[in-house]
Design a protein that fits this description.
The protein has 612 residues and is an alpha+beta fold. The protein has helices at 2-16, 23-88, 91-98, 106-121, 150-154, 210-217, 293-296, 301-344, 359-405, 407-425, 431-447, 455-473, 497-508, 543-555, 565-578, 605-611; strands at residues 126-133, 138-140, 169-176, 181-192, 199-208, 226-230, 236-238, 262-267, 273-279, 286-292, 452-454, 477-482, 491-493, 516-524, 529-536, 583-589, 593-601. It has a five-stranded antiparallel β-sheet. The chain has a five-stranded antiparallel β-sheet with strand order 7-6-10-9-8. Strands 12-14-15-17-16 form a five-stranded mixed β-sheet. The chain starts with a helix and ends with a helix.
Length: 612
């Protein structure tokens, strides 16, 4: 109950009190309502009384016309009832019906056709007479001019409903000639063997619409009205539009009309027709006339115009009187509304003009104070955000430099350790060559201060590192590059390959490792990214160590103990320089080796460098 009252209250506020409408609309509607309501009340009462009187007059006149039409058509169709009985009782047809199904009927077919033709010639309004026997043998007056098969006739809606008591039935159908279709009213009657009283066929007399159309055209109802006939099953027997003949009426409202006397209905169609009808007990048909309801009220148009003119004048007077009163209220409100829209898009430098000290003036002054305070607050927040962003950028720059600086001593330490181990183990003169390669690496590190380099520079640096390791491990490992030429100019993170290749030596060698194979390749992943693949055939990384490396990569956190620092640091630098969607993934399996994939964006190093 409470929900119903709440909905009712919402409806009144929204549609009656115009809760969400502007003040101008409310004043215009309420003032107009006071003027229009009395005028409309008088006009509606006058209009309804006039319509009732006109409706009664039309009902009486239409009923009389339809009764006359019904009588004419009944008398007209009763003649064909007599014609059908004459045909059935003719000697030729009677002899044909008495024959058994096993007896030959060929000798009687032509005499029977002549009898049908004689009956057809006796009346100009008969289009065809057809006699259908149960063995599907057809005798008609059209002969070869009939292009409508009997099997099609048996599929029509009326065929199975022909009375079994020998009474006739009237239906509307079409006969198909060579070049056209002709609508007809067919008188249908079942034929029985007079000796055995068993059904042996069907007699169909097709009556053209010439006479019925003449009678129907005499029905003058109104300019836009029309006359039509429906059979007992609701199919059109007659309609000015011949395409509807034989079809079921499209309005269910017309299927449940009274079966006695005259009556009227308002048909709920597009035109809202006023329908007058009567039912023929003899034919089982309904005779109907339809007139647009608008035509009934043609005499009230002048009243409508007078009412409309009075309402129009009254509205103008009401608007002129109310305009001056409403302007003093609405103008400052609209001014305040306009300024509020400017505040919504961020314009806080303007102020609303205050012309009065009433409620609207006080509201405008309070709004000005609020906007001024909001402007100061936004300025303070903006300065605070700038400082926060500046501190964040500095913090990231410091972290990036710290990550990069960790690479140099780490690599130098490993290189010197390699040289030392080689000197102790081999005591060979090739130490000078290795020192030369190490010097080139150090010069590469000191001379290049950029965070990114071309892939060509980085792969050269990596190859120097592998040559140094060659001095140490000699034939215990081999390496191979499979790099497309288009990759050479792309931008990569400085010192990104060497730590990952070093990982191959750290985790690749084991007790059963005979020869370590290292493969570095590159391929395009999409239109905007490519992948560098580093694969070694070593013993693989232990599961617990591999899980720890993956965990640190996901957390973007380097190891505090210095283990596996290279992989995580390279991933962090790629993430900072190119975005979170780029970085390193690592897979390893015990005894099968390790695969590291570096996903990077496709950026031309020279073009980017020149633009920067």
């Amino acid at each position: 109950m409470m929900i119903w009252w709440r909905k009712m209250a919402e409806f009144l506020e929204r549609y009656i009190l115009l809760k969400n409408q502007s003040l101008m609309i409310k004043l215009a509607v309420f003032s107009s309502f006071l003027v229009i309501f009395p005028v409309i009340s008088v006009g509606v009462i006058s209009y309804n009384r006039s319509a009732v009187e006109l409706e009664n007059v039309l009902r009486q006149s239409s009923g009389q016309v339809i009764d006359q039409v019904e009588s004419h058509i009944e008398y007209y169709l009763q003649d064909f009832e007599i014609t059908s009985l004459k045909i059935i009782n003719s000697p030729e047809v009677s002899s044909l019906l008495k024959l058994k199904s096993s007896e030959s009927k060929d000798t009687l077919i032509e005499p029977t056709r002549n009898t049908l033709k004689a009956a057809e010639y006796s009346r100009a309004d008969i289009s065809n007479i057809t006699l259908i026997l149960d063995n599907d043998q057809v005798i008609d007056t059209l002969g070869k001019r009939n292009f409508y098969p009997v099997i099609r006739m048996k599929e029509e809606y009326w065929y199975s409903s022909v009375p079994l008591n020998g009474m006739s039935m009237l239906v509307t159908r079409k006969i198909k000639l060579e070049n056209k279709e002709q609508p007809v009213i067919s008188l249908v009657r079942r034929l029985y063997n007079p000796q055995t009283l068993l059904p042996v066929g069907m007699l169909i007399i097709d009556i053209n619409f010439r006479r019925i159309e003449e009678i129907s055209n005499k029905v003058t109802i109104s300019k836009n009205g029309y006359f039509f006939i429906l059979d007992a099953n609701g199919h059109y027997v007659y309609h000015p539009n011949y395409s509807k003949l034989g079809k079921r009426v499209e309005f269910k409202q017309l299927l449940n009309l009274k079966t006695e006397g005259n009556s009227t209905e308002i048909l709920e169609n597009e035109r809202k027709d006023f329908v007058t009808y009567t039912f023929s007990q003899n034919l089982g048909w309904r005779f109907l006339s339809a007139v647009p309801y608008r035509d009934l009220t043609g005499g009230i148009i002048q009243i409508e115009k007078a009412i409309s003119f009075t309402i129009f004048v009254s509205l103008i007077i009401a608007y002129l009187i109310g305009y001056g009163f409403a302007t003093s209220i609405i103008r400052p409100v609209r001014r305040l509304q306009h300024f509020m829209k400017e505040v919504e898009i961020g314009k806080l430098d303007g102020r609303v003009r205050v012309d009065s000290n009433d409620e609207i003036g006080q509201l405008s002054a309070g709004f000005n104070n609020t906007v001024e305070k909001l402007s100061h607050l936004l300025e303070e927040v903006y300065i605070s955000k700038l400082r926060e962003a500046e501190m964040s950028l500095k913090q990231k720059e410091i972290e990036l430099k710290m990550l990069q600086s960790q690479m140099n001593p780490h690599f130098l330490y490993n290189s010197l350790e390699t040289i030392r181990g080689m000197a102790l183990e081999q005591n060979q003169e090739n130490i000078a060559s290795m020192s030369y390669a190490l010097g080139k690496l150090l010069r590469y590190n000191l001379n290049n201060h950029s965070s990114t380099v071309s892939f060509r520079e980085e792969i050269n640096f990596c190859e120097m590192y592998l040559q140094i390791q060659k001095f140490r491990f000699e034939d215990r490992f081999e390496y191979k590059f499979d790099i497309p030429q288009w990759v050479m100019a792309l931008k990569v993170v400085k010192f990104s390959l060497q730590p990952l290749v070093e990982n191959c030596f750290v985790h690749g060698y084991g007790p059963d490792t005979r020869k370590l194979k290292i493969m570095i390749s590159a391929y395009r992943q999409s239109e905007s990214s490519f992948v560098i693949r580093i694969f070694d055939s070593g013993k693989g990384i232990d599961d617990d160590i591999l899980e720890e490396i993956k965990k640190r990569i996901n957390l973007k956190k380097a190891a505090s103990d210095g283990e596996n620092i290279g992989i995580v640091n390279v991933h962090q630098r790629i993430h900072y320089l190119f975005g979170a969607e780029y970085g390193i993934t690592i897979q390893s399996e015990q005894g099968s080796g390790t695969e590291i994939l570096i996903r990077l964006p496709i950026l031309d190093y020279h073009v980017e460098g020149e633009t920067a």
